Amino acid sequence: MNVITVPGSLDDQTFESVLEQIAKLPVDARLLVDARNTTWASPYGLTALLTLAQTREEKPQFFPPEKEDTASYWSRANFFRYADDLFEIKGRVPSQRTERESTTLLEITPVSKSDDVHTVVERIQSKAAHIITQNLHLESRAVLGFAMTLSEACQNIVEHAGRGGWVAVQNYNYRKRMGRHVVQIAVCDAGIGIRQSLESGNRRPLTDRWDDGQALETAVMQGMSRFPDHGRGQGFKGIRGYLGKWSGKLAVRSGTSRVAIVPPWDDDVPRRDHLSPMPGTQLLIMIPEKVER
Amino acid sequence: MMSPHTIDVCQVLRSAVNQNYGNLLTRDTGMAVRHQIERELAANREGGITSLDFSSIGMMDYSCADEVVAKLLVLLQNDDITRGGYVVFCGIGEEHLELVESVLTHHGLALVCLCDDGCARLIGRASDAERRAWEMVRIRGHAAPAELADEFGFGEEIVARVLDDLSRRRLVRRNSTGFIALDVPDTVQ
User: Fold this and answer.
1) Hey, is the C-beta of A158 within 8 angstroms of any chain B C-beta?
2) Is B103 on the interface with A (CB under 8 A)?
3) B10-19, B21-30, B154-163: lowest mean pLDDT where?
4) What is the pLDDT of residue B47?
5) What pLDDT is recorded for position B45?
6) Is the CB of residue B101 less than 8 Å away from at least one CB of chain A?
7) Residue A104 has pLDDT above 60, yes or no
8) How many domains does chain A have?
9) Structural domain containing residue A26
10) Are A135 and A280 within one domain?
11) Residues A261, A149: one domain?
12) Which of A90, A173, A263, B144 pairs with A221 at a CA distance of 20 to 30 A?
């Protein structure tokens, strides 16, 4: 059994350590994913864990967090509801309590078809309006753009992944970097990934250098899609425009690379290559609270 | 007086995708809505004006706007100019205008939009000359190139060419005596 240790704080950055541990193992290797010492997880961390399990040939074993609050939050975020099918869960997990008002904007939700996108946007609509205007202090016109961003991000799965994925949205106080509220959208799938998607439509640009990083730049920054139709590829353009307006962050990981649009409040890097491989595409979107200066 | 044929896009949305929401989201939904609008437009061709009413639409995304707005305009522009219909968009709120404009610009398209104040606006990509000529026709309701030449400043031939282009793009209507603004009711022609 290969023990994979989940970091104490699980987000898009620390999830890389999980992938590094798995990189050297064959895809059919038996895993025990140990989250006993994990005390916090972002929506990206939770959806990426589910996605990771989808990529394994053997159902991995899973130790849930020992800390009651953490396990309880994961439960409220729907993590165990889907993890139950994907992992062999060791030990007890808290039941999902519905009576408590959750701060989660959107619990982990599967996305595989267009109707799922409608459901996601509808479910989040009223809560999002409140959070965006009251917690993030953005103008009300930011709400429609938020729905557009969420819709386009989810459609990436429907149109390009070739298999279902997950979306989750959470509002939290991002103390680590800013000490302000942020809304995070995480959309993860274990599908074919951006490079293979572009190759499947013969949309690889004429260039000697072609790898996951180039494919990401081509799709995310230049708006190229596997479809030759001129109207395609506007989704990422729209997301970039929205995040540019509200000082948001976008990071897209696919294969062994990751590109990011980094706002002034963050110290991420615009592009990382030679990462540990991960099938599919993982999107992270963050919209920060507006602070008057 | 004949009022323009109106299509309530929200109603089309509900019937096309058989669900009770008013959000224009996803490419599949956009395609279904456009196909139904195309069928309704086909019944109102022969130069008639159809008003597409977006006032009950809630959310909208780029993929759906691309299908419903841009692809519909491309189809209309490629249609036979002697028989195809004209479309005026109304009820597109300020919050959606930016998105629609971006989609139109991406395709090099433009449309006529009736704003809340009742005024028609040209949205999307159009040259300065096209915008000027279109505005002059809008103010007059109907104009022949000779009437506009002096104000336009480049002679009748140039104005006629610009108006022809606008007519091909279905942003003004042509009749035997000149060009008609799209926000003018059918009876004026």
Assistant:
1) yes
2) yes
3) B10-19
4) 62
5) 61
6) no
7) yes
8) 2
9) 1-93
10) yes
11) yes
12) A173
Q: Which residues numbered 48-67 in B keep a CB inside 8 Å of some CB on A?
A: 58-63, 66-67
pLDDT score, position B46: 63
Instruction: Determine which of B10, B19, B20, B26 to mutate to test the interface with A (most A C-beta atoms within 10 Å).
Output: B26
* Confidence band, pLDDT 50/70/90 cuts, at residue B187: very low
**Secondary structure of chain A in the HEC alphabet?**
CEEEECCCEECCCCHHHHHHHHHCCCCCCCEEEECCCCCEECHHHHHHHHHHHHCCCCCCEEECCCCHHHHHHHHHCCHHHHHHHHCEECCCCCCCCCCCCCCEEEEEEEECCHHHHHHHHHHHHHHHHHHHHHHCCCCCHHHHHHHHHHHHHHHHHHHHHCCCEEEEEEEEEECCCCCEEEEEEEEEECCCHHHHHHHHCCCCCCCCCCCHHHHHHHHHHCCCCCCCCCCCCHHHHHHHHHHHHCCCEEEEEEECEEEEECCCCCCCCCEECCCCCEEEEEEEEEEECCCCC
Mean pLDDT of A207-213: 87
- Whether B71 and chain A come into contact, CB under 8 Å, resolves to yes
- The domains located in chain B, with CATH, are 1-125 (3.30.750), 127-189 (1.10.10.10)
A80 and A222 in a single domain? The answer is no
